[in-house]
Amino acid sequence: MTNKISKRKIALSELPSGEKLSLKVIEVDGSFEGPHCYIQASVHGAEHQGNAVIYRLLEYLENNPIIGKITILPMANPQAINTKIGTYTFGRFNPNTGDNWNRLYFDFTKSSTEVVEFAKSHLQSDEKDICKEYKKLLKELILSQKAKHIEYGPNTNGLVNLTLQELATDSDYVLDLHTGPKATRYLYVPEYLEQRSDDLHFPFRLIIPNEFGSAMDEATFMPWVNLQSTFKELGRDFHIPFESYTVELGSEEIIDLEEASHDLLYILNYLHHRGIIEEAPELPRESEKLKCKLSDYKTYYAPRGALYHYNISPGSKFKKGDILATGINFENLFRDEPVKFEVKALADGILINHYPSSSVPSGAELLQVMQEYYS
Ligand SMILES: [Zn+2]
């Protein structure tokens, strides 16, 4: 038995020179019906490692039959990936509008009369039927949103996001692959998935509220959270079967195929626990899984404009008072102050991210750390 692997392109936009940008969709179907996982990479165009993991996943899928289906979108935002300035990829924001590409998704189920009607008519249905029928409703709602969005022409802000949301609607599990600027590996996990996220073995996880903040993970799980609360108001307890995570795979601008093999093992392990892959992969040494609430994920802003040396690397623990970064600022010479100064930890924590360059203006996001973490 082998997987059926099909590929297609979806036209997205056209450049002034006439060339077209399109999404590459790869659909992998197993021989048996089963769950559906949707995986995309590089919505932020400088965040490449997810594509390396997808490459490794495709190698794996050529020889290993799955149960159910995996939809894969490498290079999910071609415009962002192709926006280069010198050697640097300007991938985080739409260069034409300044908007963050991962804040342009839609929540069309909040206070939706369609969702209330759906819940009322499915008060007695079993969860399997609800799941199947609700996905159909979500598809209809997205398509009507999309029709409105393009009524006066294909508004670039949001069109790629709506198309990705549409492709993810049929799925049970969504993995949105990103990276930090200079970062360790970590997950964004909605509160309702805190326990279930243990099957995705990445070492650090930020627990985010079950709320919409316009990112892909929230755009895909909020319809289910909204359905759950609508059911609750009507007196029914509904268990959300759907899962969605943002997976941060190290640093931007670079791929590492060896690291991608490790990253893949964690993802295969997750797919195994969700019944898509039969055999459990052999995981590298079990790492600690440390969590913190989003409110305990703290940003240290650069106190001064300066060149910064980073004293510890992402993924490292530190204690209150430890030196996290050392700045040098020659303007200080003219103020009779020491050129060198230090940024010290205000509390114990773990460094997750730091600014990707040493040249930092005051007020920039210098360091991001987990505080009050727990296992
Ligand atoms: Zn990102």
TrEMBL record:
Cofactor: Zn(2+)
Domain of life assignment: Bacteria
KW Transmembrane (keyword) present: no
Succinylglutamate desuccinylase/Aspartoacylase catalytic domain residues: 34-273
GO MF annotation: an example: hydrolase activity, acting on ester bonds
InterPro entries (UniProt xref): AstE_AspA_cat (IPR055438), N-alpha-Ac-DABA_deacetylase (IPR053138)
Protein name: Succinylglutamate desuccinylase/Aspartoacylase catalytic domain-containing protein
